[in-house]
Amino acid sequence: MSYDYLFKYIIIGDTGVGKSCILLQFTDKRFQPVHDLTIGVEFGARMVTIDGRPIKLQIWDTAGQESFRSITRSYYRGAAGALLVYDITRRETFNHLASWLEDARQHANPNMTIMLIGNKCDLSHRRAVSKEEGEQFAKENGLIFMEASARTAQNVEEAFINTAAKILQKIQEGVFDVSNENCAAIQQNWGAPWCLLCDFNIVLCACSRKGMGAICLSSGFS
To answer: Is residue 70 part of a domain?
Structure first.
């Protein structure tokens, strides 16, 4: 299926906050209560439509363990969006947000859109972090914010769609340079196209292709 843009997302946050469950709910519309810990990086993709434009979201789910932090950092490059996830029932996952955000700001493009997600809002009876605290952290750090539940699917779709809409808005406002047509070669790899003329990690790059109408974004993220 053709698309106008390919946006790379990265999902970050502590171990056990539900990153893989959020990804699975978005891509497969199902919840898997028992999920093995992510080792390194997992991958998912889905087509969406924003303002009538077909967009492919390519989503990289990262391991939250400190031992995999260096691997996670290598995937920031080229990311158009990030979902920064914490567990509303575990205070420590909220307390670690500043560290994750510092990593993202250091290793990613400064124009990357970051969505803060307070996951497991279906467990409000076990809440350890108020919604107001999440809102305040997002406001102080220029993030989009919403609480969600991978179990019930509440706000999962909205989190990905709203992030994509913000990225598209930045493209339309000229924040990213989409006029570069030097990056014209793509091929299928792992079931998803990636540019042969860009760094492997710049999976966001939606190259200009005759008959496909996609535009190269690599220059805006290199």
So the answer is: yes
